[in-house]
């Protein structure tokens, strides 16, 4: 029997584990797989979590996180990477150092701070480190409504606020960095703006709108979106196309969200295989 050598783009997720399989690393790897991108991972922490919320968080040591990133990059190599839940200052400093040292390009930073269920997913003193050390190395950052409020210092209640926040965040981080764009996500908004995102790249302010999906099962939408952007960058798409296509993907996955557990279920990553 002859074997075929298959080449495939590689993406890395640096994120926390969600035992419920709805957010974090598990979601990232499913999203990479859907896009036919080989997924690699560096676990930052282990959450005991389900559709109702986060019960417990255990951090990895920063040395363990560094070793995972090096093991992947030095042997396999990555075309794109994303960060999710980084939890504490030590881990953020370690990840930022490795991104610089290993020259990891096409970095998507999902500045995970607060979960949809209200659980705090980062230590208070770590937010400044995230802003100073990691975010400036990102090609794009993807804050949700609450993270955008923290990063911009603005209360966000309408589309105009989202637009102003995107501009403020971009201007704050682009001074000394290579960050190309900010995407403020609207899953946490209400009314007509729910599910509407705002993109700003220093020149173009765009509103990204697909269809609004009526579902309570939205756990992990942010992780899915940032992982899909990462997969698209690994596939060689330009940043804007990567974001637009990722937005379409998350909308389709939301349309097939999974009614599991007693709380907020996850999205259906492999929707073409699911029967309505
Ligand atoms: N009901 C909805 N209908 C359509 N799109 C939605 C809906 N809810 C969220 N989205 C989209 O999902 C993506 C993720 O945004 P969201 O604001 O939910 O991120 P997040 O809060 O980081 O997600 P999570 O923390 O749940 O992983 C965005 O593109 C957003 O517009
Ligand atoms: C490990 C991990 N990473 C990220 C999130 C954010 O996702 P959500 O806001 O949907 O809970 C999470 N809950 N858990």
UniProtKB/TrEMBL annotation:
Matches recorded under Gene3D superfamilies: 3.40.1190.20
Q: Where are the transmembrane segments?
A: none
This protein's record includes keyword DNA-binding:
no
Start and end residues of each Pyridoxamine kinase/Phosphomethylpyrimidine kinase domain: 18-267
What reaction(s) does this enzyme catalyze?
4-amino-5-hydroxymethyl-2-methylpyrimidine + ATP = 4-amino-2-methyl-5-(phosphooxymethyl)pyrimidine + ADP + H(+); 4-amino-2-methyl-5-(phosphooxymethyl)pyrimidine + ATP = 4-amino-2-methyl-5-(diphosphooxymethyl)pyrimidine + ADP
EC numbers: 2.7.1.49, 2.7.4.7
Annotated pathway: Cofactor biosynthesis; thiamine diphosphate biosynthesis; 4-amino-2-methyl-5-diphosphomethylpyrimidine from 5-amino-1-(5-phospho-D-ribosyl)imidazole: step 3/3
Superkingdom of origin organism: Bacteria
Entry keyword set? Kinase, Thiamine biosynthesis, Transferase
Decide whether keyword Kinase is in the record.
yes
One GO term in the molecular function aspect is: phosphomethylpyrimidine kinase activity
Under the heading CDD domains, the entry gives: HMPP_kinase
Q: What is this protein called?
A: Bifunctional hydroxymethylpyrimidine kinase/phosphomethylpyrimidine kinase
């Amino acid at each position: 029997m002859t074997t075929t050598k298959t080449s495939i783009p590689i993406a890395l997720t640096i994120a926390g584990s969600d035992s419920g399989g709805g957010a974090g690393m598990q979601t990232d790897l499913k999203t990479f797989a859907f896009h036919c991108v080989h997924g690699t991972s560096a676990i930052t922490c282990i959450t005991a979590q389900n559709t109702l919320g986060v019960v417990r968080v255990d951090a990895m040591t920063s040395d363990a996180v560094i070793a995972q990133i090096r093991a992947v990059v030095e042997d396999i190599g990555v075309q794109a990477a994303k960060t999710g839940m980084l939890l504490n200052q030590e881990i953020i400093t370690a990840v930022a150092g490795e991104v610089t040292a290993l020259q990891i390009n096409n970095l998507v930073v999902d500045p995970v701070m607060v979960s949809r269920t209200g659980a705090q997913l980062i230590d208070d003193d770590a937010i400044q480190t995230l802003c100073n050390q990691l975010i400036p190395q990102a090609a794009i950052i993807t804050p949700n409504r609450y993270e955008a409020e923290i990063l911009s210092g603005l209360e966000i209640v309408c589309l105009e606020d989202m637009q102003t926040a995107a501009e403020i965040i971009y201007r704050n981080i682009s001074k000394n960095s290579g960050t190309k764009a900010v995407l403020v996500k609207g899953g946490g908004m209400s009314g007509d703006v729910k599910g509407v995102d705002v993109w700003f790249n220093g020149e173009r302010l765009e509103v990204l709108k697909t269809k609004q999906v009526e579902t309570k099962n939205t756990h992990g939408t942010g992780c899915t979106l940032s992982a899909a952007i990462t997969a698209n960058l690994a596939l060689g798409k330009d940043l804007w196309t990567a974001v637009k296509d990722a937005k379409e993907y998350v909308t389709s996955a939301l349309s097939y969200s999974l009614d599991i557990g007693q709380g907020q279920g996850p999205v259906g990553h492999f929707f073409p295989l699911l029967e309505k």
